[in-house]
Amino acid sequence: MGGTDKVWAALGAHPVLWHSVNRFAALVAEIVLVVREDQVSVTSKYFHGIAHLRVTTGGTERNDSVARGLACLNGVDAVAVHDAARPLAPARLLADGAGLLNRFSGAIPVIPVSDTLKEVDQHGRVIATLDRGPLRAAQTPQLFRADVLRHAHEMARRSGASVTDDAQLVEACDGEVVTYPGSPRNIKITTEHDLELARLLLAAG
After folding, report:
1. Where are the alpha helices (DSSP H) in 27-145?
2. Which CATH architecture does the domain made up of 6-204 adopt?
3. pLDDT for 80-101, tens place per residue?
């Protein structure tokens, strides 16, 4: 992003982070934003009007940051972990996932993989072509029963495991995680191109 903090980049009249929060703010009992230490003050001021929102600092690894967010939640039965760089997540993803937690430990939105996938070695040489049929690309928000997710993070802390999403932690503890349809609009902003696409999607409604 050329030095720009992606979650504070302009997306319409508001920064990316505002959209990520606003999508779900009215649907949840508590919100915890996990940010860098130097962003706590500006984030707290920006969202001061949302009474059920708190801000805390992240950790060294992704696991640490989510665990710190969990520690700020009180008396909740279910937790949704959302990537703030996904500002266009449809609100229905939250309801769709929450409805599955009475039967499963966790529920995550996914979309089919459309590209041909190649496994390569450290030199970029193709080792194998993967069957994309059973593969899915995971999105957020990822929803979990709170007790299950807390246990999974405690196990990860003890083992020193580092993963790319919370579903992997729950899976490692033999939790049953189910998938449900995500959204192609639910893009993750990592480059300027992604930001331009998000602006076009937002303008299109």
Report:
1. 40-46, 62-71, 92-98
2. Alpha-Beta Complex (3.90)
3. 999 999 999 999 999 999 999 9
